[in-house]
Structures are given as structure tokens and as C-alpha cells.
Amino acid sequence: MATIDALPPLRDVIRTHDLQARKSMGQNFLLDLNLTAKIARQAGDLTGCDVLEIGPGPGGLTRGLLSEGARHVLAIEKDARCLPALAEIAAAYPGRLTVLEGDALEIDPLSHLSPPIRVAANLPYNVGTELLVRWLTPKDWPPFWQSLTLMFQREVAERIVAQPGSKTYGRLAILAQWRAEARIVLQLPPEAFTPPPKVSSSVVHLNALPTPRYPADAAVLSRVVAAAFNQRRKMLRAALKGIAPDIEDRLQAAGLKPTDRAEQIPLEGFCALARAVAAK
Ligand code: SAM
């Protein structure tokens, strides 16, 4: 087993602290420190950056982020059983790791972080998707983060980078590609994790764009896209009838045909529609 620091191998950490993975917490741990360092490198140059890590678990990725030079890691972990293992990492990297116990969906980490900030996480996919949408849809842009490096089930990763016309194109692709440049940077087989999940995983890296690709209000765009893809086989005029009573006029104002289907509309078209819906 690789050593990237003087701390014990992760299998020993798991044994010492009795960290049997729990399905209820979505726990599939990465125990190969070569691999966690490789994932940390996908997050870009960490020197001089604060890193927000969600769900550190026994700390494999945390150790990767620290050994790759992160100035400070703020890690939020829901499972209190992991805290003693994380305290050992904090002791090995004095002043560079802060751990908060709790649910990342409830905690506001910003008072603990200084820019530039990068985010890295290997999270249960439902929590990851919810956080991703929140990180992509603040009212103002640019956001608090410079980049996001996130592990997802491969199928979710493909939805994030999907292009119009594909079956996986939808809300995640539009929200991600509107304000960020999104790429799949690593593919991982189930055996990379302990215990192995049923499906393959991918690491997605998103760089925040300085300004969104097209103007639109985040909340309106989110609402329009959610409605359009909720009934993706329907024509836009039917799928969007709950958005505005005069939706056909607004579709036309945006240069879209009421008979078009969501799957065919590029990002630019959805942004134009969000502007037309927001117009008085
Ligand atoms: N990062 C570790 C690794 O790569 O080995 C653990 C990954 S495991 C897939 C997901 C981690 O997220 C677990 O440690 C779990 O306890 C934690 N977790 C699950 N839900 C969470 C939540 N809502 N907030 C914070 N941590 C959460």
C-alpha cells in the first residue's frame, strides 16, 4: 500500500477505529493513497488554496489533498465515528485541517474558508447532486469556489457533460455548462472502492467561468429547465404550460418553436427562454 505521508495505511486506520462502511451513510471508501493523490491532482494546483472537502470518511482523499499542498482543508463529515481518524490527520498536518461534524446540506462552511477556494469530494451521489445544483445556482456569479472536483456514479457524470440530442442531456448538463466548464477527468471501476458499489464511478472537474455563457436569472433558468425535462418527451408548449399562461408567446420571443422538445434545445435557447419568461 502506498505511503504519501507518515500516517498508517488506510486499512489499518479502518481496523484501529472500527470504521466498517455503512450503507446508510453511502460509504464506499477509497483506500489506495496513490489513487486519492491522483484525484487530488485533478483538483488543480492546490498550493495557496483552501479546499472544502465534503465527506472525508477515514481521510484517504483528505490526505491526498494535504500531501498535494492544499493550504488548508475544511472537511465536513456526518459520521462521528470518522472523527478520531481525522484528528490523527489534523495532528500530522498542524494547522492545515479543520473538521466539522455534521450534514453538509445543513452547514454553511464559508466563515471557515478564505479564497481562493476549491471543492473536492467523494460523496453519496444523491448528496453530491444536491450540493452540485446548489453550488451552480447562487443568485450572483462568480461563486465562492474556483473549481469543483467531484466523484459521481458514471451515469450522473455523463449527465453533467451531456450535449443536446443525447438521452442524458437535461437539467444537470444545462446548469453545469451554463456557468462552468465541465469535464470527466477520471473513470474508476467498482473495485477501486471498499466495499465496491454496483456501478462504475467518474470524477468530474468543473471550473467556474468568470461570467455565465449567456445571461439568465439562475432561479428562473432552473425552474424552466426542471419543467422542460420533467416531461422530456412532450413538446415544450405542453411541458412548460405551468410556467406562464402565455408560454407559446414567450417561446416564440426566445426564438423557440412551441412544438420543439427539450432534448433538442441548446443551452443558449434555454437561457433565451429564461429571459423571455422573466420579462414583464
Ligand atoms: N471521502 C472518503 C473516501 O473517498 O474514502 C469517503 C467517501 S464515502 C463515498 C462518503 C462519505 O460522505 C462518508 O464518509 C459519509 O459518512 C459521508 N457523508 C454522507 N452523507 C454526508 C452528508 N450529508 N454530509 C457530510 N458527509 C456525508
Can you walk me through this structure?
It contains eleven helices and nine strands. It is of the alpha/beta class. It has two domains: 207 residues, Rossmann fold, CATH 3.40.50.150; 61 residues, Helicase, Ruva Protein, domain 3, CATH 1.10.8. The strands form two sheets. A seven-stranded mixed sheet has the order 4-3-2-5-6-9-7, sandwiched between helices. The protein has a two-stranded antiparallel ribbon with strand order 1-8. α2 packs across α3, α8 crosses α11 and α10 packs across α11. The longest helix has 13 residues. The protein is elongated. The site of S-adenosylmethionine has 24 residues, from β1, α3 and β3.
Please give a quick description of this structure:
36% of the residues lie in helices and 18% in strands.
Work out the number of β strands.
9
Task: Strand order, main sheet: write it out.
Answer: 4-3-2-5-6-9-7
As a whole number of angstroms, the C-alpha radius of gyration is: 21 Å
H-E order: HEHEHEHEEHEHHEEEHHHH
- Would you tell me which CATH topology of the largest domain applies? Rossmann fold
Mean pLDDT: 97
What is the name of the CATH superfamily of the largest domain?
Answer: Vaccinia Virus protein VP39
* SS-based class: alpha/beta
In quaternary terms, these chains amount to single chain
Instruction: Indicate the percent of residues in helices.
Output: 25-40%
